[in-house]
Amino acid sequence: MNYTKQQVLEEYNLFIKTLNDAKSDLQHISGNDDDVKKIKYAVIKTVEKEIDSTLDFASKTLHNQNWDHLTIGFFGITNAGKSTIVETFRILFDNNRVKNNDGMIVGDGRHDFTTRYDEYKFFIDGTEFTLIDVPGIEGDENSVKDNIFKGLTKAHIIFYVHGHDAAPDAKIVEKIKKYIGKGVNVYSVYNIKGGTGNYDEPEERVTLLDERTLKGANLVEETFRNTLGDTYKGNICVQALLSMTAYATFNAQRKDLIKAQSKLLSYFGSADNVLSFSHFMDLVDVVKEKAKNAKSEIIESNAKKLHQQIRQAYKSLSQVSTGSDSKFKSYIDNINIIFNGTTNNIKNGCVKVINGNFSWFENMVCERIADDGKKFDDLQKNLEDSINNGFKNVIARETDALKRKIKEENRKIAGLFFQIDNVRTSVNANVSGSDYGFGDFFGDALGVGGWIAAGISIGTIFPGLGNILGGIIGGIIGLLSTIFFGKDARIAKAQNQARTKIGEVKSQVINSFKNNGMIRIETELNVERNNIIGKAKTAIKDLKTIKSSVETIKTRLHNIVI
After folding, report:
1. How far apart are CA 559 and CA 46, in angstroms?
2. Which of 127, 365, 380, 401 is the most buried if burial means most Cβ atoms within 10 Å?
3. How many C-beta atoms surround the C-beta of residue 488 within 10 A?
4. C-alpha–C-alpha distance, residues 104 and 252, integer Å
5. Pick from 74, 119, 57, 557: which is nearest to 305 by CA?
6. How far apart are CA 207 and CA 209, in angstroms?
7. CB proximity list for 273: less than 8 A, separation 6 or greater
8. Beta strand pairing status for 423-426 and 232-238?
9. Per-residue b/e over 202-232, b at no fewer than 16 CB within 10 Å?
10. Measured between alpha carbons, how far apart are the two ends of the chain, in Å?
11. In this model, does residue 33 exceed pLDDT 60?
């Protein structure tokens, strides 16, 4: 589509209005439950972060756009030759530059010279241009990233300067892609490095584009085309030092450049020969070609930047996902399985406590019968205390496990809604959506455990156990005084009868626990189960409403770029 400036501006305004309207729509979504509202607001906050980031980037980009003349950015790693190329353009075409002051924006090789953002305006064949010298990008460029961002958002065309024989480093190329995106067309400029000593022999001055140079140029071109795709428009080879020295009037402080210029002019015979050998005019020809269609280049570039932002916003909002209904059903099924498992574990654990303690009690009673029937009151008290403590331990252990399992299920279901962490939304802007807290919510709401243990004891499920056991043991002790049997026979008979009677009481206690205590435990657990499932259903309903709103936003964004 061939855009006009007015159409692009209208799309920018529509884009910003769409995002602002989206924020308003989200804020007016009502919640059904105070606790669920906390989740809803946290989720909306995550979406709003994305929208705010995009709005900020869009407004800065729109504010930075130049609609009047073509803006070209020179981008690359430190010491690649960006400033040297920009200085050559100034020397050749900027009639307003300060005379006898050339070379002052160029580094001397001892440190990174370009750490600030600089713009230079001049005319080529009557067409106005702006060249931007962008700071180097390798290593830690945090100190200059704002200037890099400013330069790249302004530029309609990017020339990436590469100054090494080897192919560009893969990490650097990925960083280039991150910075540039798809908003502008990109050319590579292969700056063939070399000092005056490289051209002191006649055979070294035959051609710049020898076999070695062309091989290096092919590596550069292949790497950039593979990384940038159709955004990449081709490569130009230049020798920046030669091109700059051809017609410069260097500042007296730059004795190094004055000396190099003198030698090169003596080697090549004239400034025209030096400039011609440098192939700098190949780069100028590309710029002139762009100048013929400067208006359409500007509009096309600004439209591409807009559409890139819209697509990035669409992509980021696509990270919002409610998952499938089967996943929600699976969540509820898992909650039921977890609670059923907890119920069974408590029942089996408490029965094991009863069995274990009655086994101990039975053994101790039999030992005391054999020891002439010493008193049994302490055994009865220990039995009750041990069973009560056993109940508490089982319930505490199983309900702690219940909380952990539910928290894990909530963490999983949270992942169905948002995976927005680390989504790169624009140059230099990163959104984190990790603070919505959905995964911990229901786990924090679960309060089972202590109150169940406090309400379930041997006394509540089988009242008067001590009296019952005391009566049984009292009757058994009477056997020890019978005159019809010998002592060993009396002890054996008393022990057998004790085992039988204690076993009967144990069975009654177990049945009472299952039919009384477990019913109460199951009832209380089911209340908590239903509370969790109810909250989950409400949250899912509300979050699906948010999802629907996000889908509407995405549709509006999509319609802008159709």
Report:
1. 24
2. 365
3. 9
4. 10
5. 57
6. 5
7. none
8. unpaired
9. eeebeebeeeebeebbebbbebbbebbeebb
10. 10
11. no
DSSP states of 47-95 as a string? HHHHHHHHHHHHHHHHHH---SSEEEEEEESTTSSHHHHHHHHHHHH-T
| Residue 444 identity (one-letter amino acid) | D
H-type alpha helices, 207-293: 211-228, 240-247, 255-268, 271-278, 280-292
What phi and psi, each to the nearest 5 degrees, are found at residue 132?
A: -115, 125
- Tracing tokens 């073509």 back to the chain, one arrives at 70
How many other β-carbons are positioned within 10 Å of the β-carbon of residue 378? Answer: 11
- What is the DSSP pairing of strand 423-426 with strand 429-431? antiparallel
Q: Is the pLDDT of residue 113 over 50?
A: no
User: pLDDT digits over 223-236, tens only?
Assistant: 888 888 888 899 99
- Among all chains, which residue has been given the structure tokens 């017609």? 247
Give buried/exposed letters for 117-148 (b at 16+ CB in 10 A, else e).
beebebebeeeebbbbbbbbbeeebeebeebb
In whole angstroms, give the CA distance from residue 39 to residue 35: 7
Q: What is the C-alpha separation between 458 and 31, in angstroms, rounded?
A: 45
Please compute the mean of the pLDDT values over residues 444-454 and round it to a whole number: 57
Q: What is the pLDDT of residues 328-373, one digit of tens each?
A: 788 889 999 999 999 999 999 999 999 999 999 999 888 888 876 6
Q: Rounded CA gap, 140 and 115, in Å?
A: 12
What residues pair up with 157 in beta bridges, in sequence order?
72, 185
- Burial label for 110, CB within 10 Å (0-12, 13-18, 19+), is exposed
Contact 248, 91 (CB under 8 A): yes
Distance of CA 94 to the CA centre of its chain: 47
Residue 446, Cβ density class (10 Å: 0-12 exposed, 13-18 middle, ≥19 buried): middle
Tokens of 236: 């130009």
Give the model confidence (pLDDT) of 399-445 as tens digits: 889 988 988 887 776 665 544 433 333 322 222 333 334 444 444 44
Helix (H, G, I), strand (E, B) or coil at 141: coil
Tokens of 5: 């400036």
Q: Of the candidates 340, 410, 295, 335, which has an alpha carbon nearest to the alpha carbon of residue 35?
A: 410
Residue owning tokens 């049945």: 511
Structure tokens at 155: 């530029």
Helix (H) or strand (E) holding 465: helix 465-477
Give phi and psi for 249, each to the nearest 5.
-120, 90
Extract the tokens encoding 343: 């119920």
**Residue appearing with tokens 């006009």:** 4
What residues pair up with 191 in beta bridges, in sequence order?
238
